Amino acid sequence: QVQLVESGGGLVRAGDSLSLSCTASGHRFSNYAMGWFRQAPGKDRLFVAAISWRGLNTYYTDSVKGRFTISRDNVKNTVYLQMNGLKPEDTAVYYCAAADRATMPEYSSRALYDYWGQGTQVTVSS
Fold first, then answer.
1. What's the pLDDT tens digit per position in 76-98?
2. Distances in whole angstroms, Cα of residue 24 to Cα of each of 27, 52, 92, 101
C-alpha cells in the first residue's frame, strides 16, 4: 500500500502560478501511473492530468492544456503539477492518485486509481 501526501496549495490571484507536489511512501513509486484530479464544491471529482510510469507520456484535460504541466521524479517518489495562468474556475481541492497496474486503458478514469491523497486546496481569486 502507498500513502500519498499533497502540498503546495494556497490562495492566489488570477494569472498567478502554483506548484503542487505529491510525495508517496514506499519504494515502488515507479510501478504506479500517477494522476491529478480536482473537486470543486458541490461537483464531482474530475480528471486534471496524468503521467505514465516513467514519465514518458502525459495527459491533460482540455481546460488545462497549455497551462498545467505534470511531471514526476521517481527517485524522490514525487509527482508535480505546475499550474500557470490560473483562473477562478481552477478553484478546487486537488488530489493526487496512484494506479497500481501494468496498463492504463484510460488515464482519466477515477476507477482505475487505487490510492488517493488527502487533497490540497487551491483558490484563485478574480
1. 999 999 999 999 999 999 999 99
2. 9, 15, 22, 16
